[in-house]
Design goal:
heterodimer; A: alpha+beta; Alpha-Beta Plaits; 21 strands; about 20% strand; B: four-stranded mixed beta sheet
Chain lengths: ~425, ~300
């Protein structure tokens, strides 16, 4: 085991390999507040990459209804439970948020790598604590769709009073869209007995070498997010490839510019923003104040990693749902949840402008600038002053090509009278 | 009789052992299994490679004692061994899809199909108990004395009632199987008390003494018959003979079973006339369910409103 620094945990941690970081890291943000669970992303991925024989259970992208849903069933509860068994009562956060290296405080519990050293899981001793889901757990990708949970016991024949009021709904669910997190410290990579899994030095995308894989399924056991899939027809494991030909700018539609993945570009709710993050030698993020991902994750801090306590440093980030029970969200996204929701609920001028970038173009936005516009109105949101300005945000590709220009207020187009009712 | 295995089942079964989930598999053997398996990836022809994987997995399936429970329990059922040409074993994902089925082709050849969840293979003793139970199902289906028919003849029942009848059939059959296994000194898949509780739930409309008497006779019977089951599942409430609105009987208009009959006082003359126009043989004494009454009442009110 080596010592590597995990900034999401605010501390060093054990990992089976020496630290090695790519020049850039594939990363994304999903705004759970906007997801309507339409599964367009799921089908975009399925019809692009996993439509063949043997891939029936491979859903590289899935959208599950939380808290009950999950693919495979209860993947997160089971891993959290294993960690709790390994380190009972001590899976807790402490400290206070500091700089880029300690943005959420310090995690004092054990990661899947650390827990594996002292706790033998259901599959025996491994490099990362995990379990192999059963066939039944893989059988229904959208089980418990739209099933809500109540925060308190209801009274028969009576609705909750004030159940619609924020900050927390009394009955709630939300959609969690998931793909491989292309982790900085992938558990799948750590567990592979064949060294068939690698992280691309150019963009940090985690891939399985199909020539080397011998179908041990150790990656499936180890990945805490359960995002690798065994394919019976080839007897190898497969996983999300982050649509790397598009990231490389090889899709004709991008005109040579790096493009976002198929799942991101197909999202009708515009919940997704994908980018490439420049890294320092130590794996921390290079300061890029006007990169939309950098801004949302490190400046505004409204986007948080999914289950950071697993310790894999996932590169998928989520703007947490405003209406959901806070303890549940703290468990899922870490201690930054309350601040993130507070900020998102009454966004400042810059945040509101940057939120307009989601889903606006298929090419990757590396930098943005904001042109100030007039004030439209002013109000109060849960006791906080909120002003809306019709600013214009402009997004640029890495080579400086302008790819996005949009305003905070949705533009109103008035058609000529001769086109009236022609829609 | 020939035992055949589905390719997916074999592979998943040996991987269950290789992952250490089935106790008693030596780690040195697991390493050897993986070494042998790795070599096969270099076979270029896909069919040849698949065949090689199948054979390797079958060898380890036998080596790790996974075939033994099947063959041992089959030895206890001579009728199954004699009458079946093939017993095929496949993998299934859900509990509801598990079990044994009998297929007979046009030439009269009989094939048994056993669908198993992988988790069944973890514990040998529990697997044997389950196999014994399922093979008794096959035994009954093959035994002329049982008189099995593949399709349940349930004339006059709607689809919901047929489904209920099929569930009752399964319940009764399972009771007799576990009763016979217990009498023979084997461990049943469910204990006497569990079956008794399930029977009481399924026949809760019977008085307790009748429940107990019927259940005990099922548990003790050594020669169950398809026809006896049919008699118990088709109309256990005796509702067919009821010529009046009885709780749980079918509404004569919509045919759905109901416990909410419309109050006879609500059947006004206009409504009665409207129903008899569509159902000439219906009489007010037959009753209507509350839903049908509502539907006809709405139509009546709508017509009155449009006339006004």
């Amino acid at each position: 085991m080596s010592n590597v620094f995990n900034w999401q945990l605010g501390r060093e941690m054990d990992y089976p390999y020496e630290a090695a970081y790519p020049d850039q890291q594939f990363a994304f943000i999903f705004n759970t507040n906007r997801c309507i669970g339409c599964q367009t992303c799921t089908m975009a991925c399925k019809s692009t990459w996993t439509f063949s024989k043997g891939q029936e259970y491979a859903w590289w992208n899935n959208v599950e209804t939380k808290p009950y849903g999950g693919y495979p069933h209860h993947w997160d509860v089971k891993t959290l439970d294993l960690l709790e068994q390994a380190n009972p009562g001590r899976q807790v956060w402490g400290g206070t948020p500091e700089d880029l290296k300690v943005p959420y405080g310090k995690f004092n519990g054990k990661t899947v790598f650390e827990a594996a050293k002292t706790f033998i899981g259901p599959e025996g001793a491994n490099r990362a604590l995990g379990y192999l889901p059963t066939d039944e757990e893989w059988s229904a990708p959208n089980r418990y769709e739209d099933h809500p949970v109540g925060n308190e016991k209801g009274v028969k024949g009576q609705y909750f009073k004030g159940g619609e009021l924020l900050p927390e709904h009394k009955t709630w669910f939300f959609y969690l869209a998931r793909i491989c997190n292309h982790c900085s410290y992938p558990a799948c990579l750590a567990a592979c007995p064949r060294n068939a899994i690698y992280k691309r030095p150019e963009d940090g995308i985690v891939l399985i070498d199909q020539e080397r894989c011998r179908g041990y399924r150790k990656c499936m056991e180890a990945c805490p997010y359960k995002k690798t899939y065994y394919r019976g027809t080839t007897r190898t494991s497969e996983k999300c490839i982050a649509c790397y030909p598009r990231i490389e700018g090889k899709d004709q539609a991008g005109g040579g510019l790096p493009m976002i993945t198929r799942c991101m570009s197909s999202c009708i709710g515009h919940i997704r923003l994908q980018g490439l993050i420049e890294l320092n030698k130590d794996g921390t993020w290079k300061e890029a104040r006007n990169n939309p991902l950098y801004y949302l994750i490190h400046v505004a801090k409204v986007a948080l990693p999914l289950y950071p306590q697993f310790g894999t440093e996932p590169n998928g980030y989520y703007i947490p749902p405003r209406w959901v029970s806070r303890p549940y969200l703290r468990q899922m996204f870490g201690p930054g949840v309350d601040d993130a929701i507070e900020k998102y609920s009454a966004p400042d001028r810059e945040l509101l402008a940057v939120l307009q970038l989601f889903g606006k173009d298929q090419r990757i936005c590396h930098r943005y600038e904001i042109k100030e516009g007039p004030k439209v109105f002013e109000t109060e949101v849960r006791g906080k002053k909120f002003a809306l300005y019709n600013d214009t945000i402009i997004g640029y590709a890495k080579d400086g090509t302008k790819i996005i220009e949009t305003t905070v207020e949705e533009p109103l187009h008035v058609r000529d009278a001769k086109h009236a009712n022609s829609i | 009789m020939q035992l055949r295995y589905d390719e997916d089942f074999l592979e998943a079964a040996v991987f269950l052992c290789a992952s250490g989930r089935r106790p008693g598999v030596p780690s040195l053997q697991i390493a050897r299994f993986h070494r042998e398996r790795e070599k096969l990836y270099s076979i270029l022809d896909p069919d040849e490679r698949n065949a090689a994987f199948f054979n390797l997995h079958l060898d380890w399936f036998r080596e790790w004692g996974l075939e033994q429970p099947l063959t041992d329990v089959l030895k206890e059922s001579p009728l199954v061994r004699e009458q079946l040409g093939v017993l095929a074993v496949r993998k299934t994902t859900g509990k509801n899809d598990e079990g044994a089925e009998l297929y007979v082709n046009e030439a009269g050849q009989r094939t048994g199909l056993l669908a198993l969840r992988l988790e069944r293979l973890i514990h040998d003793a529990a697997l044997r108990d389950y196999l014994r139970h399922e093979f008794t199902h096959l035994h009954d289906m093959l035994d002329p004395a049982f008189g099995y028919l593949p399709e349940l003849e349930l004339p006059g029942l709607n689809s919901a009632q047929k489904r209920l009848a099929r569930e009752r059939y399964r319940l009764l059959w399972d009771i007799t199987i576990d009763g016979r296994l217990t009498a023979a000194g084997f461990t049943p898949t469910q204990a006497y008390e569990q079956h008794a509780a399930a029977f009481a739930r399924g026949y809760s409309f019977w008085p307790q003494p009748r429940q107990a008497q019927t259940f005990n006779s099922l548990w003790r019977t050594q020669v169950p018959r398809h026809a006896d089951f049919l008699a118990l599942i088709t109309d256990p409430r005796g509702l067919r003979e009821a010529h009046r609105p009885a709780p749980g009987a079918s509404c004569p208009l919509c045919d759905f079973p109901t416990f909410q009959w419309a109050d006879p006082g609500l059947l006004e003359s206009g409504l009665v006339q409207r129903i008899t126009t569509e159902f000439p043989n219906w009489l007010p004494g037959h009753g209507v369910c509350h839903r049908c009454w509502e539907a006809y009442q709405v139509r009546e009110l709508a017509d009155c409103a449009s006339a006004a």
